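Can't paste images in this forum, so I'm doing it all in text. The chain is below; anyone willing to post the predicted structure tokens underneath?
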Amino acid sequence: MRSRSILTIAAMATLLVLLVPAARAAGDQAMNAQVNPIVQSWEEAQFGGLPVLPSCLSFAVDRGDPTTGPSMLIIKMEAGCVVPWHWHTAREELMMISGSGTIEFPDVPARKVHQGGYVLLPAEHHHQFTCNTDCVFFDAISGKFDIHYVDSSGQEIPVAQALGAVSEQPAMTQ
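Text version of the structure:
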């Protein structure tokens, strides 16, 4: 069973690499400047959180440095975890490894994302993400990581207000 999961993860990582052309932007070229191959197991990944993200979410940096430029993150979220309405300066590309989630955009029906699912989030595009079950996904970020939370009218709000509103919502079950 463990070898099947590793093969699934490797296949999804390969698919993600094929979906992202190397010469798309200068940030992508910086990520591809790595000369040596990288092989990493889950046991080696150092997961942690950030005060600007919900406590039900943790991540590990797989490649790059999200504080300075393009990076690849592995993100784990607990069932019912919500990253409330927000946007990022950089483009994001998500590839679901396990579990299922729901991605929402303003004025567009919510979409379910399952294992193997792919989501492209253009820069500065408002969205909200909920993991319906425990989920793990890759997040390829085209530039420095930031997060700007917004209210229902699209106006930027403080982190504490955004995350406080989420903690008051009942957990989703599915």
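The chain has one domain: 2-31+45-167. Residues 5-27, 170-174 have pLDDT under 50 and may be disordered.
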